[in-house]
């Protein structure tokens, strides 16, 4: 995923896969947290998917990178399929990161666990299970901050 797509910094500048690898290797110390999250926005003719790679230094801030792509709305006729694609995009990015930097990222999902609050709660166990069985720690709302970062870029 990371090699095939345009990777952008927060300021929207495009960087190469090798640039990302170099920047991450310089930025990742033992205290840094790395998380991957995705979000999507349904538009009239397409769905905008954004996946973020976030590096957080507790108490010091952080930086992030994102990948954005558009896919036909016809491919995702239900919310479940759209969110499942978000899950798989995040897992794919986390796998690529692990290969790139020899370190596991957390996967942050844009789903909630409380039925009365979240439309996505019915998918919670299934999608957490997919992430965990892929070998990653999974976080959901309200702890899934990387998916909140992705949300900022789905509408542009």
Write the layout of secondary structure elements.
Blueprint: E1 7-9, E2 14-15, H1 17-27, E3 33-42, E4 46-57, E5 61-72, H2 79-101, E6 106-108, H3 124-133, E7 138-139, H4 145-151
Parallel strand pairs: 3-6, 6-7
Antiparallel strand pairs: 1-2, 1-5, 3-4, 4-5
Describe the structure.
It is a single chain. This protein has a single domain, classed as Nucleotidyltransferase, domain 5. Helix content is 33%, strand content 28%. It is globular. By secondary structure, it is of the alpha/beta class. Helix 3 links the parallel strand 6 and strand 7. A seven-stranded mixed beta sheet has the order 2-1-5-4-3-6-7.
Low-confidence stretches: none
- Write down how many β-strands occur, each being a DSSP E stretch of 2 or more residues: 7
Total domain units: 1
What share of the residues lie within helices? 25-40%
List keywords for this structure.
single chain; 156 residues; alpha/beta; Nucleotidyltransferase, domain 5; 7-stranded mixed beta sheet; 4 helices; 7 strands; globular
In summary, what is this structure?
The protein is of the alpha/beta class.
């Amino acid at each position: 995923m990371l090699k095939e797509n345009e990777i952008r910094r927060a300021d929207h500048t495009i960087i190469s896969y090798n640039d990302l690898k170099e920047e991450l290797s310089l930025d990742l110390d033992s205290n840094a947290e790395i998380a991957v999250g995705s979000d999507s926005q349904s538009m009239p003719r397409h769905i905008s998917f954004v996946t973020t790679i976030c590096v957080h230094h507790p108490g010091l801030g952080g930086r992030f990178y994102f990948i954005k792509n558009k896919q036909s709305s016809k491919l995702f006729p239900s919310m479940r399929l759209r969110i499942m694609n978000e899950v798989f995009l995040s897992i794919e990015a986390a796998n690529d990161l692990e290969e790139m930097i020899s370190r596991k990222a957390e996967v942050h999902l844009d789903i909630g666990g409380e039925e009365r609050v979240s439309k996505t709660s019915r998918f919670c166990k299934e999608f957490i299970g997919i992430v965990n069985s892929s070998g990653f720690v999974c976080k959901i709302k309200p702890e899934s901050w990387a998916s909140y970062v992705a949300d900022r870029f789905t509408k542009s």
